[in-house]
Structures are given as structure tokens and as C-alpha cells.
Amino acid sequence: MKQNLTSTLAVSTFALIIAGCDSGGSSSQDKEMIQSLQTKVETLEQQLAQTSDGAIAAVESGSEELKAKIAELERQLASKPDDSAAAPSTATGTLARIQKQGYIQCGVTTGLPGFSNPNEKGEWEGIDVEFCQAVAAATLGDKTKVKYIPLTAKERFTALQSGEVDLLSRNTTWTLHRDTALGINFAGVNYYDGQGFMINKDLEIESAAELDGAAVCVQSGTTTELNVADYFRHREMKYAPVVFDTNVQTVKGFEAGRCDVLTTDQSGLYALRLNLQDPSSAVVLPDIISKEPLGPAVRQGDDQWFNIVKWTLNAMINAEELGVSSHNVDDMENSNDPNIRRLIGIDGPKGKGLGLNDDWSYQVIKQVGNYGESFERTVGMSSPLKIKRGINALWNDGGLLYAPPMR
Ligand SMILES: N[C@@H](CCC(=O)N[C@@H](CS)C(=O)NCC(=O)O)C(=O)O
Fold first, then answer.
1. How many Cβ atoms are within 10 Å of 319's Cβ, its own excluded?
2. Which atom of ligand 1 approaches the CA of 247 most closely?
3. Which residues face 105 on adjacent strands?
């Protein structure tokens, strides 16, 4: 008899522990109830140890009561909706580390006006720099919490692979090889570009087709180097590459007459032309010889971080499409447009799936702005580069920018 009762109690205790474990998302009320039942089991066990057979009946009736309570508790827990899927993912990997250290490490160029360039005060500026800031606003609530790490084209992928940077935001072309063999993931495109040529205007050349036999200044470790080789070989034209490691060196080489033509992404040509002692001495040819979708990249193996970076970019593009900017985002709290309400985290999936606060996208828009604001300020008509939106306009305005919906 005593033995039976002991095993009943043991099973009950086990059931309680299981219920406690399984409840995962159970409320503190549930936990209190489980605790109080566990205490009752302990009391009954003590009574049992001391009791004579005559008193066992009383303990047994206590046990019956207890079993009923356990059954009820199990029913309650079973009928609770499983909300584990909606529960915020806890910060792991890169997010946890950057939250602990208080800043993100962002890989940028050694200096490229419009994209990532230190100004005269030594502050980093540019569309890629603003993207680093947007990710800091989303994850740390403060766009200034960024440590910029200048990287040459050759250094950038190793820096990302080795963990020296958490995010590479550096006019980097998304290619199959980089997206696979290099162990990195591109989170989207923040500037659609293509490779072009800049010549000294005294050369009186009007098209790249006239460049047979030219000396070409080019930067190492770039798609530029590969494309130019393809271009000349495919057309059975000759060229002599003059290769440099940084922009500054490439521009100097071009100015010193070490080459007839400088080639890079067209946006880069506009930027580098500004750095010439006499920008009017150079002309950008109309030819575009490649596709250069430039975008931010992260290391493979951390899906949460990959999603955060991806959706920060998507939020900036969606904000422009929905007319939400740093200037009006505060008024949008009362908007009755469901897309806007989801964009700024009032309704919809909010921050849970990303492991972020619900105001993550609000902070991006408030502190940095939407994609269009960032473009205009850094490379667009309000910047020294004066690049038109062109294919970087929104999809509903003749361009290629199209972000998946936030719902
Ligand atoms: N988009 C190309 C080229 C990127 C690139 O590195 N371009 C040069 C020339 S515009 C640059 O940004 N240099 C900056 C530096 O030297 O830090 C790629 O991903 O390979």
C-alpha cells in the first residue's frame, strides 16, 4: 500500500515537472500553481514516511485531490495556445555580441565620396555609412554606435569572414562566387551600378570600343579587374592593366599619366572625378560594360543577423514607397494605413521575429531616414556627386527598387 502511494506520488511529481518544463511560455501564475502543488507533494511524502498504515487512507485521499488538481492543470496547459512561434527570438550570435559590446563593426572603404568617406571633421559619410547607421539604430537604438573599419577591396572579405567586421557596407558587387565560395550572404542591393570608363579629355575618345591598346588603371581585388579582362578579350582588343590597391593610388596613377583610362563602377567614376585636381580634365564615357548590384553583406551562419540587415534595408525602401520619412514618422503613429502601421511597428509582426524591439524600424526611419532621403543626401542631387535616381528609383517610379512587404 505504502509502495503504491509512493509510486503515485512519484508519477505525480514527474507529471508536474514535465508540465513545468513543457509550459515554456506559461505565465507566472502557472508556475506558482506548479510550485504550490510540488510543495503539497513534498508534504504528503513526509507524512507518508512518518505515518502508520491506519493514517494512510487520509494521505491517499489527499493524493486523490492532488491528482485531480494535476489533471486540471495539465488540461489548462494543453488548452493554452502554443505561442512559442510568436515569442521574440532571444538574441544570439552576432546580435547578442553587438548588444553586449554596444556598437557594430562596419566595414567601409578607405574613402569613396558618396559611399563611405571621412569628411573634413573625420566623420564618416555616405550611403553605405548611413546603412551602417541604420543597422545600429535598428539593433542598438542609436545610429552613432558604429565603429567604422576602412578596408581595401582586397581586404574586405577576409575581414568579414574572420569577424573583424559584423557588416560589410562597402560598394560591394553581389556575385555568385562571393555569395557562395566566400561564405558570405548579400542582404540586398542598396545601389544598382555598372562599370564604366573615365578618360583624359585630351584623348578625344568617345566610346570604349576605341580603347584598343590602352593602358587601364584599375583596382585590385574587384569585379572591375575581372570585367575589364572579359571586355577586352571578348572584343579581341589589347590592353595593359595598371593595378593599384586603393582609390587614392588609382587616382594618382591616372593623374600622373600612368594610364589612358581609369575604370570602376560608374558611381565610383563620378566620385573619383571629384577627387581630381581638375575634374573638368576628365570625361566619363557613356559605355556600361557590366552589372554591379552593390549591397551590404554578412557572414554566413547567422540567420538572425542576416535577417536584421536584410529587413533594415527593406524598411528603408518600404518607408520611401509609403511616404514615411525622418520628418513625418512621428505623425504616422495615428495613420490608418495598415502598411504604415506595420512599417513602424504599431501593428503586424513588429520586432519579435528579428529579436529586436518593436520600434526597430521607427528608429531607422527617425534617425537615418528612408532610402530616398539617404540617396539624395549622399549621392543624389543634394550631394556633390549629383547622381540621378535612374534605375535606383522605386519600382513604381521606373526603377528597380522593390522591397518585400512588411506583414
Ligand atoms: N563593386 C566592385 C568595386 C568595388 C571597389 O572596391 N571599388 C574601388 C574603386 S571605386 C573602391 O571602392 N575603392 C575604395 C578603396 O580603395 O578603399 C567590387 O565589388 O569589386
1. 29
2. 16
3. 147
What is the atom index within ligand 1 of the atom nearest the CA of 221? 20
Distance from residue 110's CA to the centre of ligand 1 (Å): 9
Instruction: Return the C-alpha cell found at 179.
Output: 555569395
| 8-state DSSP, 245 | S
Q: Which three cell numbers stand for residue 376?
A: 539624395
* Whether 329 contacts 380, CB under 8 Å: no
Task: Tell me, in angstroms, the distance from the centre of ligand 1 to residue 208's CA.
Answer: 20
Query: Which is nearest to 354 in space by CA: 99, 19, 55?
Result: 99
Q: What's the CA-to-centroid distance between 159 and ligand 1, angstroms? A: 15
Got the DSSP string for 308-351?
HHHHHHHHHHHHHHTT--TTTGGGGGG---HHHHHHTTSSTTTT
**188 alpha carbon to ligand 1 midpoint, in Å?**
18
pTM over 0.85: no
Q: Which residues line ligand 1 (CB under 6 A)?
A: 109-112, 152-153, 171-173, 219, 222-224, 246-247, 264-265, 268, 292, 294
Query: How many angstroms separate the CA atoms of 163 and 160, rounded?
Result: 5
Query: What are 213-240's pLDDT values in tens digits?
Result: 999 999 999 999 999 999 999 999 999 9
* Residues contacting 222, CB < 8 A, separation 6+: 153, 264
Q: Best of 155, 176, 224 to mutate for ligand 1, by most ligand atoms within 8 A of CB?
A: 224
pLDDT tens digits, residue range 163-193? 999 999 999 999 999 999 999 999 999 999 9
SS3 state of residue 101 = helix
| Contact indicator for 236, 298 with CB cutoff of 8 Å | no
